[in-house]
Recover the amino acids of this structure.
C-alpha cells in the first residue's frame, strides 16, 4: 500500500526540529532511519501530515567517552554502534547487540533513537540499555530531562516520551563483563527472546547484576529474580546455572505469536539468560 500524502521538512538543528514538530500541532512525526515508521505509514497505521527529517542534524550522531561515561547520539546508526572500536573494547555487549539487528540495510539506516522511541517489543537495544542502566536524554519545548532505561519502556510500543519531545542521546558507564544473546526470527532478525546481562564483579564475587530481556513480553524489562539470585555469589557457572533457572518465572504477559508460542518463549528465557551470563563470565576472565 502507498502511504497517505505528507509534507516533508528537514531539520537543521535540534531546536529547529522541536520548533517544526510543535508547529504541526500533533500532526507531525520525526523520521530518522525510517525503517520502523515508513512500514507503518505504508500500512496506514501511521498517517502523519508532516515528516520532520532529523537524520542529518549536525552533532546528532556519534559515540564518545568522557570521564568514564559513554555517550551515544540518538542519530547514530546501528552499523556505527556495531563497528565502534571504543564500544568493542569498553562495552562489547552493546556492539554485539547492534551487530545482531536486522540486515546491513537496516543497520546502515536505522538509528538508536528511532529504535528506543519506537520500542518494538522485540527490539534489541531496549534490553541492552536496561542492562547498562543507561540514562536516556530527552529534549522538549520546556527543557531537557533524563530517564532511566528501565523506567522508559512502559508498554507495547509505549515509552516515557511526549509527542513534542526528541531523544537526544543515551549515556551509561561502560561494562566489560556483559553480553547479549538472542534467539532471533530467521526473516527479520527481531528477537523472539533476547537477553542482555551485565555483571559487576570484584575478587571473583558478583557484586550486582543487571539483566534486560526483550521479545518476551509487551516491553523490555528487568529479570530481577535472576539479578537478586546472582548478587553475592561467586562468579562461576554453578551460580549462573542456578540463577538462570529463575529467569522469566515472574513474567505474567509472555508473548505468543506466529513466531513462537508462549510456552516456547517461557522455555527459551532461561536458556538465553544462561548463554548471556556465560558469555559475560568469559569476558571477566
Ligand atoms: C527488515 C527489518 C528488520 C529489522 N530487524 C530488527 C532487529 O533484528 N532488531 C531490532 O532491534 N530492530 C530491527 N528492525 C527495526 C530497526 O532497527 C529500526 O531501524 C528501528 O527500530 C527504528 O529506527 P529508525 O531510525 O529507522 O526510526 P524511524 O523509523 O525513523 O522512527 C521510528 C519512530 O521513532 C520516532 N523517532 C525517531 N527518532 C527519534 C528521536 N531521536 N526522538 C524521538 N522520536 C524519534 C519516529 O517519529 C517514529 O515514531 C528491523 C527493521 C526492518 C525494516
Amino acid at each position: 500500500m502507498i502511504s497517505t500524502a505528507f509534507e516533508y521538512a528537514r531539520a537543521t538543528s535540534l531546536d529547529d526540529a522541536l520548533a517544526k514538530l510543535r508547529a504541526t500541532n500533533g500532526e507531525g512525526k520525526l523520521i530518522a532511519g525510517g525503517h520502523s515508521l515508513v512500514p507503518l505509514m505504508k500500512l496506514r497505521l501511521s498517517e502523519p501530515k508532516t515528516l520532520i527529517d532529523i537524520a542529518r542534524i549536525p552533532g546528532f550522531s556519534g559515540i564518545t567517552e568522557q570521564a568514564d561515561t559513554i555517550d551515544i547520539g540518538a542519530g547514530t546508526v546501528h552499523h556505527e554502534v556495531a563497528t565502534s572500536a571504543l564500544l568493542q573494547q569498553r562495552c562489547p555487549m552493546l556492539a554485539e547487540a547492534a551487530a545482531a539487528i536486522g540486515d546491513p540495510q537496516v543497520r546502515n539506516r536505522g538509528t538508536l533513537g528511532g529504535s528506543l522511541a519506537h520500542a518494538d517489543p522485540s527490539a534489541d537495544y531496549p534490553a541492552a540499555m536496561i542492562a547498562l542502566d543507561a540514562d536516556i536524554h530527552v529534549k522538549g519545548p520546556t527543557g531537557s530531562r533524563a530517564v532511566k532505561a528501565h523506567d522508559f519502556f512502559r508498554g507495547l510500543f509505549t515509552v516515557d516520551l511526549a509527542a513534542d519531545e526528541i531523544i537526544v542521546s543515551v549515556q551509561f558507564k561502560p561494562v566489560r563483563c556483559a553480553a547479549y544473546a538472542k534467539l532471533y526470527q530467521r526473516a527479520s532478525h527481531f528477537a523472539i527472546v533476547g537477553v542482555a546481562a551485565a555483571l559487576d564483579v570484584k575478587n571473583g564475587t558478583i557484586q550486582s547484576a543487571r539483566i534486560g530481556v526483550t521479545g518476551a513480553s509487551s516491553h523490555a524489562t528487568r529479570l530481577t529474580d535472576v539479578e537478586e539470585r546472582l548478587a553475592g555469589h561467586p562468579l562461576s557457572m554453578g551460580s549462573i546455572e542456578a540463577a538462570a533457572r529463575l529467569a522469566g518465572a515472574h513474567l505474567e504477559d509472555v508473548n505468543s505469536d506466529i513466531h513462537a508460542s508462549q510456552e516456547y518463549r517461557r522455555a527459551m528465557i532461561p536458556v538465553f539468560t544462561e548463554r548471556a551470563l556465560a558469555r559475560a563470565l568469559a569476558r571477566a576472565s
